[in-house]
Amino acid sequence: MSDDSRNTSNPKLLPYFLILFGMSAGLSSVVTLVAEFKQELGFSNFEIGLTIFCGFASSFIALITLSPHADRGRSPILLKSGLLLGIIALFFMAVGDSLWYFIIGRSLFGFALGAASPAARRTVIVANPDELGKNLGKLGAYDVAGWVVGPGLTAALNAVGNFRTPFWVMGAALVLLLPTAWKAKPDAAERDIQKKKPLDLFRIRRLNGALLILSAYFVFIGAFESVWVLELDFRGASQWQIGVGLTLAALPIPLLAMKGGILAQRFGARRWTLGTMSICTVFVASFGMFEGLLTLIILTILCSLFEGLGFPAGPMLVSVSVPEERQAAAQGLAGATEVAAGALASIVAAVIYQTTNDTVVWITTSIIMIVLLVFGWILTKPPDRQPIRPDIPFDLKRRLLE
After folding, report:
1. What is d(CA 239, CA 241) in angstroms, rounded to the nearest whole number?
2. For residue 349, what are the CA distances in angstroms to 6, 300, 324?
3. Integer Cα distance of 65 and 16 in angstroms
4. What's the angle, vertex CA 124, arms to CA 119 and CA 125, rounded to 5?
5. pLDDT 10s digit of each residue in the chain, 402 long?
6. What CA–CA distance (Å, rounded) separates 159 from 129?
7. What's the structural domain count of the chain?
8. What is the DSSP string of 114-153?
């Protein structure tokens, strides 16, 4: 397909950006309120970790089973379905009064994200390969911006009403995005007409390396979801301080994601993501070495500076490892790998935190990240120095891989 034809027929990207923003804000409300679940409903640390684990697990299933359909022209359908299911999940948790309500609600929301995310990533990736880094960075910025807005809003709504109020308001806000979702159009890129199996992608060595690098980051995310808010609570933070802390900790990521994508495309996504994630491992290890509420928040903010700069580079490595017609399947497989790593990390971190302390959690997390990054570095090294995809200019492909 010619560039002129593609530029005139490609869908607008704004609906995909806005839907991920809204759903990320909804998910952040669940994470922000885990301390409230413990206080109001009597959930143990393990039960909170189990709830988070179930959300990761359901997202894993959706990513594996639904992402190939986006490669077959069904991205808009997946986006709409994910949004509707996310609304149902938030309202379900709003009326919950026991552990099972929140396990089911978090599972539904995880499935919704698993349906919508690969569809959005494929559309953004194939829209303009020459601006791959910029577009993925922008998508990441909208995605994480939901995490920035969500915690502060959740804390305010919880203070005005109770812990159920944020779920009602977030669900209603997603309802307002339904007209935007219905404006989403299919992309004009090559499609998977052979209906290949997503697990076939594991045969690609460089893709496996990219998946390990992404897994390293999501080991941290899983531990963060499971432990960070609880540790703030343990260090004496009130609910509003938790909300503000989460917002401040996440703020650098959307602010720097687009710039990070541009820099990754300029200097090489492989070295860029490995460099930024390596720095993050140092900060992660330090979380449990210093006492004090403010100290933990400041260290997390510093870590998120490098998260924001490196955030788009991982999906870029995945993208250039597969042909155009397999983009959604590859991104879905990447997402499934991420949530599997996050799910395992969340439950393990919860158990370690329950039996020891946060210092052990963060040092263990950092060590696991380092091991995954080393193997990812080995597998993504291009031994033949040859480009992977024929539809991106040679210099760009070489820059993305080296």
Report:
1. 5
2. 46, 17, 37
3. 20
4. 100
5. 444 444 444 557 787 888 889 888 888 777 777 777 777 778 887 887 788 788 878 888 998 888 888 888 778 888 889 999 999 999 998 888 888 888 899 899 989 998 888 888 888 887 777 788 888 889 888 988 887 788 778 888 888 888 889 899 999 989 988 888 887 777 666 776 667 787 888 888 889 999 999 999 999 998 998 899 889 988 988 878 887 888 788 889 989 999 999 998 888 888 899 999 999 999 999 999 998 999 999 999 999 999 999 988 998 888 888 887 788 888 889 988 887 888 789 889 989 999 999 999 999 999 999 999 999 999 988 765 554 443 444 344 544 555
6. 45
7. 1
8. HHHHHHHHHHHHHH-GGGHHHHHHHHHHHHHHHHHHHHHH
pTM: 0.79
For residues 190 and 324, the answer to whether their CB atoms sit within 8 Å is yes
Residue 252 belongs to some domain of the structure: yes
Can you tell me the distance from the alpha carbon of 121 to that of 336, in angstroms, rounded to the nearest whole number? 14
State both tokens at 217: 């980051």
CA distance linking residue 9 with residue 5, whole number of Å: 6
- Inside any domain, residue 113: yes
| Angle of helix 252-267 versus helix 132-160 axis, rounded to 10 | 170
Which amino acid, 17? F
CATH number at residue 166: 1.20.1250.20
Structural domain boundaries enclosing 215: 14-179+199-401
Measure the CA–CA gap between 129 and 140, rounded to whole angstroms.
Answer: 16
What secondary structure letter does DSSP report for 225?
I
State how far the Cα of 174 lies from the Cα of 83, in Å rounded to an integer.
7
117 contacts 63 by C-beta, under 8 angstroms: yes
